[in-house]
Amino acid sequence: MSIAAAESVVQSSTWAATSLFYVLLVPALILWYAYWRMSRRHMYELAEKLQGPPGLPLLGNALEFTGGSHDIFRNVIEKSVPFDKESVVKLWIGPRLLVFLYDPRDVELILSSHTHIDKAEEYRFFQPWLGNGLLISTGQKWRSHRKLIAPTFHLNVLKSFIDLFNANSRAVVNKLKKEAGEFDCHDYMSECTVEILLETAMGVSKSTQDQSGFEYAMAVMKMCDILHLRHTKIWLRPDLLFKLTDYAKKQTKLLDIIHGLTKKVIRRKKEEFNSGKRPTILADYNAGTADEATKTTSVEGLSFGQSAGLKDDLDVDDADVGQKKRLAFLDLLLESSQSGVVISDEEIKEQVDTIMFEGHDTTAAGSSFFLSMMGVHQDIQDKVIDELDKIFGDSDRPATFQDTLEMKYLERCLMETLRMFPPVPIIARQIKQDITLPSNGKQVPAGTTVVVATYKLHRREDVYPNPTKFDPDNFLPERSANRHYYAFVPFSAGPRSCVGRKYAMLKLKIILSTILRNFRVHSDLKEEDFKLQADIILKRAEGFKVRLSPRKPTKAC
Ligand code: HEM
């Protein structure tokens, strides 16, 4: 046989093999698809009975998530309106079924449950950053780490941070003095909240910090942009495709910055440990020096960010917190790891990354929204200032714990800010078994991503009359008393509630009161002009633009 003839035989047999492959592949794919659809029949049947905007074959509603972050947020909110009566909206993103809930009874079913505590599949995008930290871990690992970490945010530990909250609040006031015109207050709030976290929960003294706090905060913001893109753009979801994009390269660089800071923090702390410096038992703070008022250990309800009547593992009495547990967060983790049993080095890093993220971006957004609202509502700001003047008079003394309990009106303004602009606008869980919604008896199938739509829940007309109006009186005790406990959940609730809830409230009251003792805030925009976006954390797309004017000749801080 000639070479040409041999080549032709090889070519035709290759062609035949390729054709055979495709001839077999197509029916195989059809069979696989039919089987896959069959195996999900139960899900489709139940989903069919839930309402939602119409979608396209295969893609579902994925195209609702095109455009920038602000367009997506506006689009999703607008598209949900026709379903407000039932407060349940179904969306398909490709094969994934998402069910948004915003009736307090349905929210209670999810958040109060010890069964539905697994985070949704979408949280896996956080994994390269937060590993298996408290926010995303599940099962026994989550349970044991939550038990370890929650006491480090007990009120008695937090009271020992008050001096540091004050010092950092004064420092930010000093920095703000240079702002003459309109500026974005979020940058200041971000830097300040990172520095406070480093000094308190991580126990890293100011003298050993450098500029990396601000760089860290900016890297976190950009990381959130990338994660949001992965949540909303269907083609960025598979790791394989994501890795081919420029976003993946950007993510690697951002994680270098983020992990660079957390590794440095742990390294410094370990050096201190190894050089024999043992952690301070923080509860000693209350033993001798503090007055009766600061010994208060069981202040609950609104003062600490949730409806009266909701309890979680942060609301334990002082007597239940053993002395060893009265350590700051990182001190306790390192102390525990000395035995090598409770928590490994890698796990410490994951938890430090988690607390650094959850602890700063949320409070930076909350405080920036608060300042924006003060700027918009001058009459309400007057009342906050009156209250502060009554507490502090002309003195520029630091705030005490008792002062924070007396800031009742400021507290209501803070609650109202967290109602209208919850920094975490949605909470997503993966359900492993069918659930029946108490509000309407409909069933949501196992395998669904159930999304508690906090932003929508907090704007229900039947719960908050005139829900788009900023009205701190919504949180007057008599108004809150008759409200469903789960109608206000800025910090989530139940077994997976925010572990930093009390820390956040105390810190926010001290920062915000210190700012308003020194400045009056102004805003040229009204809240209806705010462009909201939800890149994981709710923000103003145009930046948190405000202006400040000095309230009184400020004494040198
Ligand atoms: C205004 C400030 C804050 C808000 C609105 C907020 C809100 C939330 C929400 C809604 C969750 C549940 C998230 C979910 O299930 O997907 C959460 C969880 C969490 N938060 Fe916060 N948070 C704030 C501040 C903080 C602070 C200051 C810390 C730590 C210092 C913190 C640490 C955590 C942690 C570790 C979790 C995960 C808890 C678990 O799953 O067991 N947060 N937070």
From TrEMBL:
Cofactor(s) required for function per UniProt: heme
Residues annotated as transmembrane: 15-36
SUPFAM superfamilies: Cytochrome P450
Binding site for heme: 498
Keyword Signal: no
Pfam families: p450
InterPro entries given in the database record: Cyt_P450, Cyt_P450_CS, Cyt_P450_E_grp-I, Cyt_P450_sf, Cytochrome_P450_Monoox
Molecular function terms, GO-annotated: heme binding; iron ion binding; monooxygenase activity; oxidoreductase activity, acting on paired donors, with incorporation or reduction of molecular oxygen
Keyword line: Heme, Iron, Membrane, Metal-binding, Monooxygenase, Oxidoreductase, Transmembrane, Transmembrane helix
Keyword Transmembrane helix part of the UniProt annotation: yes
Family membership noted in the UniProt record: Belongs to the cytochrome P450 family.
Protein name as it appears in the record: Cytochrome P450
Gene: HaOG200074
